[in-house]
Write a structure and sequence with these properties.
Blueprint lengths: L4 H26 L38 H28 L2 H22 L3 H15 L2 H12 L5 H29 L2 H22 L12 H8 L16 H5 L2 H13 L1 H16 L5 H31 L5 H26 L3 H15 L9 H5 L4 H12 L1 H13 L6 H25 L35
Helix pairs in contact: 1-3, 1-5, 1-6, 1-7, 2-4, 2-5, 2-16, 3-4, 3-5, 3-7, 5-16, 6-7, 6-12, 10-16, 10-18, 11-12, 11-14, 11-17, 11-18, 12-13, 12-14, 13-14, 13-18, 17-18
């Protein structure tokens, strides 16, 4: 049986996402073993006294560096400063240059910078610089993936493979958290960065040898599959990197502006749960460190399977003519915004119902993960020829929530963790999610926009994004 090269390529992108996201979160675990011993001071809420916190779970931190809490926080958060600043430039580079080499530089630089952390940590400001540049080069990941989706993934399979490719973000998060803890416990914090930093180098070797940036240049592929990919509706135009960027059309496009708003507000729940859930579970629900990590990892692992399933269902319905690509995207945005908002409302008012809160928080992460088959791939729907640039534009404000939520929550609970104070944080997230859905429901689209094409291809402008299309010749299965 012949293996489809586009499937192998998509799996390589999934692994690249695993690597980038794994390296994004490993510092949060490693830093536990990097700072000098400080007695753990229990500062959890006393509103739920029925949840005992065993004294044995409050462990001392023992490491070589005498960093304050603020300095530790900056070591982690300065990564996102580089990530935010690098988002638009990396999107531009992804569209204008050979995407294969941009991705290779992104992954390779991540690996090298990660392995430099143990050396850089001896001087705190050098570590800040290394972490900043790690975030800067990591910013290219999502724009590059969006460009390659338009190059390698055929229209009939788009939602399915988007789900599989972005499953790597969840798998990378889970694997990184679990392996970082094990490595820290049995070997030491330095080994986390040496081991994790080696994996990108191995990936780069395989990707460089066996894969090209587009099917037109791919060596190891049948002519039949090459033709099948290139003839797909919405395939990225060869030579699009030399096309003039239609800036005015982009910034006056209602579907694109709706996407900017949706990307900005629709990411609030994802980043709130990613950055603040462990804190809430520890301070309010009073889970110990071990239980907290296990519970937080579970929904991300489930995400790795539910997102491809959602994508498969959306593709199936579109192929059958049950709904359009626009309806499919709006359905995914609905799943990622409305159900988690309902769950957060319930959590905000059930108080000390630990089991109920835990179940609903888990479900919230699972359904919120649909952002990867919703608004985070809509850039490729609107304009595959400019997918990298569009991702750079939309995900720049889309990353803001990762910055502002931690200080907002910190200000709210500055005088102590209470359910009432956390309720305000929940409502901020809920309002943003609902506004994101309303915006995309009324103004969003998944139809390829006219400005995606050069003037010579205006006949493509009227292709519907939605009705059941005429079947085209499929590949012969062998």
């Amino acid at each position: 049986m012949e293996i489809r090269v586009r499937y192998l390529f998509a799996i390589m992108l999934c692994i690249a996402n695993m690597i980038i996201y794994g390296l994004k979160v490993n510092m949060a675990t490693a830093i536990i073993g990097m700072v000098k011993k400080k007695p753990g001071v229990p500062d959890w809420s006393d509103e739920c006294p029925e949840f005992d916190v065993p004294g044995s779970t409050v462990t001392d931190i023992d490491g070589p560096f005498d960093w304050t809490a603020s300095q530790q926080g900056l070591v982690i958060s300065i990564y996102f400063a580089g990530y935010l600043i690098g988002m638009f430039p990396s999107g531009y580079l992804s569209d204008r240059f050979n995407t294969k080499y941009v991705l290779l530089i992104c992954v390779l630089a991540n690996g090298i910078l990660t392995m430099l952390v143990p050396i850089a940590a001896k001087e705190l400001y050098v570590l800040y610089i290394v972490r900043f540049f790690t975030g800067l080069v990591s910013a290219a990941n999502l724009p590059i993936v969006n460009v390659l989706l338009g190059t390698w993934v055929v229209y009939e399979e788009k939602s399915t493979w988007v789900g599989i490719i972005y499953a790597g973000t969840s798998l990378g998060t889970v694997i990184s958290i679990l392996t970082s803890g094990l490595i820290l416990n049995y070997i030491g914090w330095e080994a986390i960065f040496y081991i994790h930093g080696t994996l990108p180098l191995i990936w780069c070797v395989f990707f460089f040898i066996f894969f090209a940036g587009c099917p037109e240049e791919q060596k190891y592929i049948t002519e039949q599959e090459r033709s099948f990919i290139i003839s797909s509706y919405g395939h990225r135009t060869p030579g699009s990197s030399k096309m003039k960027i239609p800036w005015k059309s982009i910034f006056t496009s209602k579907p694109f502006l709706a996407l900017v708003v949706t990307n900005t507000l629709g990411n609030f729940c994802w980043y709130f749960l990613l950055t603040q859930l462990p804190l809430y579970m520890n301070k309010i629900l009073r889970y110990d460190i071990t239980s907290n990590a296990a519970i937080v990892c579970t929904p991300y692992l489930v995400n790795a399977f539910t997102n491809p399933l959602i994508g498969k269902v959306l593709d199936w319905g579109r192929k059958k003519g049950f709904w359009s690509q626009t309806v499919a995207r709006k359905s995914a945005v609905f799943i990622s915004t409305v159900p988690p908002s309902i769950f957060l409302v319930i959590i905000a008012y059930v108080g000390c119902e630990r089991l109920t809160s835990t179940i609903l928080l888990t479900f919230s992460i699972v359904v919120c993960g649909a952002i990867f088959v919703g608004h985070l791939c809509n850039q490729n729907d609107l304009a595959p020829n400019y997918a990298g640039i569009l991702m750079g534009i939309t995900n720049t404000p889309g990353t803001i929530s990762a910055f502002i939520l931690p200080p907002i929550v910190g200000a709210l609970v500055g005088e102590g963790h209470t359910i009432a104070r956390w309720r305000v944080a929940f409502w901020i997230t809920i309002v943003c999610q609902v506004l994101a859905f309303v915006t995309f429901a009324f103004l969003g689209s998944a139809k390829i926009q006219s400005w995606n094409y050069p003037v010579a291809e205006v006949e493509n402008w009227d292709v519907d994004d939605g009705q059941q299309q005429e079947p085209r010749e499929q590949e012969t299965k062998t």
